[in-house]
Amino acid sequence: MRDALFARIEAKTAELVELTRDLIRIPTVNPPGDAYADCAQFIGERLRRRGFDVAYPRGEGTPGDSDRYPRTNVVARRAGGRPGPCVHFNGHIDVVEVGDGWTTPPFGGEVKDGKVFGRGACDMKGGIAASIIAVEAICEEFPEFAGVLEISGTVDEESGGYGGVAHLARQGFFTRPRVDHVIIPEPLNVDRVCLGHRGVWWAEIETYGRIAHGSMPFLGDSAIRHMAAVLEKFEREFYPYLATKRTTMPVAPDGARQSTMNINSIHGGLAEGFEGWPSAVVADSCRMVIDRRYLIEESYEEVRGEIVNLLEALRRERPGFRYDLRELWTVPPTMTDRNAAVVRAVAAEIERVLSRPAEFVISPGTYDHKHIVRIAGLKECIAYGPGILDLAHQPDEYVAIEDLVASAKVMAASALALMGSGQA
Predict the structure, then answer these.
(1) Domains of the chain
(2) Catalytic residue at 150?
């Protein structure tokens, strides 16, 4: 039975490639959220014609939602001929900006050397296409399958997912007994099962000074120099300390198996983008945004407390040092149990299809897994899909056609196994 399913998917290879190209050609760039409704309708109409019930829940009131840029999602659902669990494939339809350095048309869906090129090819329209072909193959080969198949195309994953998966989770779309297992076709490499992600804590530090004439800085107090003291303390004390924090989580790549912190931006003194000659002033404010990624062995309280302690030490040591710390965003780390049914099913099919054992990994950054676990409380969730993680957000992004086909086979056979259909 599995051979028949795989043969059907192989026969649909050209269709899978064209579907990937069609999705790439819809420029769903986020921000601002272009063409979301067009892409959702494209997916929904295709699945409606194949017997799925389709809904278009909009993330009204979520960040970025407006009549010009509606946060339009699509959810398609089809029940089989017998009762059984629901397997849900969730993919985000938004892509990041194009950027420079492309040698192929970013939204052309060009095919060459066995690859489909374009923004979103890897992250993650190839994964969406593979999951659609997987469920269609099941419906064609086993029309009386047991259980329920569901596919969603959701928005805004690249900016937090609040208009997409988070909104749907709050509406009950990912809550049991409606859904039992979720597979997110993120590009973590075709032989990997991604069990979750590290935690994230974003914050803004602002230091304060006193404005004065730039020719007499001794009459003022430079907020930029105070921020320089923060940076010096980071370099001398905090980064070496983070390097000692290692995790048992199988984070890939290996450099992310420690705690990390990125300085996203620094702004101080004159506003950026001004034209003309700068004025001679001492900066009375300087702001820095930090992106702290943390491990399952750490707590939010510990992560925040480390920065507070560092700033408080500077306040005691450095005359005139004043600061504010504003939290911007936080998500705890998550890791699905390796013995979860969805993990075992996908890992087994990877080994069957690719003739090598599955690798278990944790993503260095967050993805929509966080909302399904945190809001919906559904722990039967993993990421698995085609594409090479390192290509995401890069110029000349691509997905290999052989990986599209292999992942579609893995997803289809895994879904049948999870639904208990017995056909595969």
Answers:
(1) 2-197+333-419 (3.40.630.10), 199-331 (3.30.70.360)
(2) no
